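Quick one, tokens below. Sequence please?
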């Protein structure tokens, strides 16, 4: 086993002759969390990601709720890992500055059948180790969320449900992994696999990579990769969730997550504040065949507007400032599918459908235990770098443009580039100088909120593009953007 002393690197430069102890395929939240966890041990590790950035798959487009796991199926692996992951991410968020707001949630019953379900849901929460749910009557429901539409009959409170930033979470885990020595190989799509006696060769779009152990955390692509290892045990069905994002002026309407009574199809359509100060309505749940179809649809909008009109008619009077869709990796099993094949030195992490943001860090720890049991020796590293301190994207916490002392020390933090989201030239510069820099505009949006506001880049788009191109800031070459003086 090798003992990497060198610091990790963001490496987009192509094949490497090194045989890694572990290669993780996929740099979403789950792959990044696994890599970070294993990098706490004396192992050489690489993450192979097909795309040009981390967190560009399902992990970039979800509802960003840090679930307690109150409504998971008791006794499942998912229930355990969501509960544990929620605690781990809550603590990690404090260390790294990932914004989290403990808004709490209110699950609302709109008819007598749903009302009858609520006590059972409270029992389910208890069976999941969550004791804080309380049944409330209609008057209390309207006291807590006065803008709700007519007809609510009662509710169940879930005081510890929180909202967070999925982008910062993924980036923090990836940055931490790189800081702990992990090689991040972007634009490396694994296309073929050859399992040898001691090493596995992964044939990628950017050359061959060899590893002793391979971990498949490829989300929507996990079943395809699993078949490359000769298995035929599950199929991923992309389940699209479309969402509407309402302007910040809507935020006073709702200060907590308003949930429907869940059904067998999923958690249903919710209304929630976002960590960026908006309100969202969604998601839909529609099974597709195309694993790349993250477009939004007219039917999706109509469906959400019909739901929204019932749930909170006043919300529909506000402006929609953005729409988006994400694809859950639903599988034909009722639980997470995490299994090691010691003979192939291969571990599958599949079916992390609608809870992977919350469970990710606990999945990392679980994978560590499974892989150790399957034969990978783990020697804890004696010295680990501190976790990274991430730029704050949360509206409820101080941002650079609000901090006179930071602006005095570095005037770039006083130079606002994106006026809707109040993003400064200093933050854009920092993003390009960070250990895992963006590869383009989309990555920059996720790292800074730039162009994500009301005008969607209409006013700042040209300046941001200019910063991206003419000032030489491309992630692949590690160029930095000097803030405009
Ligand atoms: C609408 C919606 C709402 C959701 N809401 C929540 C929520 O509120 N709370 C919560 O906890 N969870 C939520 N989720 C679930 C959560 O987003 C996912 O469980 C999580 O993002 C999954 O992360 P991942 O790393 O497994 O997958 P991904 O983020 O998709 O990462 C997998 C990566 O693997 C890469 N890859 C695939 N194939 C290959 C290959 N052959 N070679 C190299 N790389 C490859 C992909 O490019 C991708 O980057 C929601 C999901 C959706 C869609």
């Amino acid at each position: 086993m090798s003992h990497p002393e060198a610091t990790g690197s963001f490496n987009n430069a192509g094949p490497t002759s090194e045989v890694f102890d572990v290669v993780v395929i996929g740099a979403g939240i789950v792959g990044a969390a696994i890599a970070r966890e294993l990098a706490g041990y004396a192992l050489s590790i690489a993450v192979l990601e097909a795309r040009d950035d981390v967190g560009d798959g399902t992990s970039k487009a979800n509802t960003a709720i840090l679930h307690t796991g109150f409504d998971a199926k008791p006794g499942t692996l998912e229930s355990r890992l969501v509960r544990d992951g929620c605690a781990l991410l809550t603590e990690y968020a404090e260390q790294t500055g990932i914004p989290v707001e403990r808004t709490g949630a209110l699950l609302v019953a709109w008819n007598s059948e749903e009302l009858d379900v609520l006590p059972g849901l409270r029992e389910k929460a208890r069976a999941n180790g969550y004791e804080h749910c309380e049944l409330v009557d209609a008057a209390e429901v309207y006291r807590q969320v006065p803008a709700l539409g007519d007809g609510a009959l009662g509710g169940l409170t879930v005081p510890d449900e929180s909202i967070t930033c999925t982008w910062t979470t993924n980036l923090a885990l990836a940055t931490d992994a790189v800081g702990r020595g992990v090689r991040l190989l972007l634009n490396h799509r694994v296309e073929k696999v050859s399992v040898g006696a001691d090493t596995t060769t992964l044939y990628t779009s950017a050359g061959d990579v060899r590893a002793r152990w391979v971990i498949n955390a490829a989300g929507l692509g996990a079943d395809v990769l699993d078949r490359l290892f000769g298995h035929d045990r599950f199929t991923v069905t992309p389940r699209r969730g479309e969402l509407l994002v309402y302007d910040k002026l809507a935020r006073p309407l709702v200060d907590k997550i308003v949930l429907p009574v869940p059904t067998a199809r999923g958690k249903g359509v919710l209304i929630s504040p976002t960590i960026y100060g908006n309100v969202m309505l969604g998601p839909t749940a529609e099974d597709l065949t195309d694993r790349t179809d993250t477009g939004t649809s007219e039917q999706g909008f109509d469906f959400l507007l019909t739901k929204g009109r019932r749930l909170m008619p006043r919300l529909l009077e506000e402006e929609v400032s953005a729409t988006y869709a994400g694809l859950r990796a639903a599988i034909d099993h009722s639980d997470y599918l995490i299994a090691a094949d010691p003979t192939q030195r291969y571990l599958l992490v599949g079916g992390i459908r609608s809870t992977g943001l919350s469970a990710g860090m606990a999945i990392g720890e679980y994978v560590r235990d499974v892989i150790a049991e399957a034969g990978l020796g783990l020697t804890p590293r004696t010295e680990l770098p501190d976790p990274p301190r991430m730029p704050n994207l949360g509206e409820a916490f101080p941002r650079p443009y609000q901090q006179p002392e930071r602006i005095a020390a570095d005037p770039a933090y006083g130079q606002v580039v994106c006026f809707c989201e109040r993003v400064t030239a200093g933050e854009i510069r920092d993003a390009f100088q960070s250990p895992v820099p963006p590869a383009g505009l989309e990555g920059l949006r996720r790292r800074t909120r730039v162009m994500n506001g009301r005008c969607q880049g209409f006013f700042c788009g040209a300046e941001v593009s200019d910063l991206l191109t003419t000032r030489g800031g491309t992630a692949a070459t590690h160029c930095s953007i000097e803030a405009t003086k």
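The two ends are 50 Å apart (CA to CA). The first strand starts at residue 9 and ends at 11.
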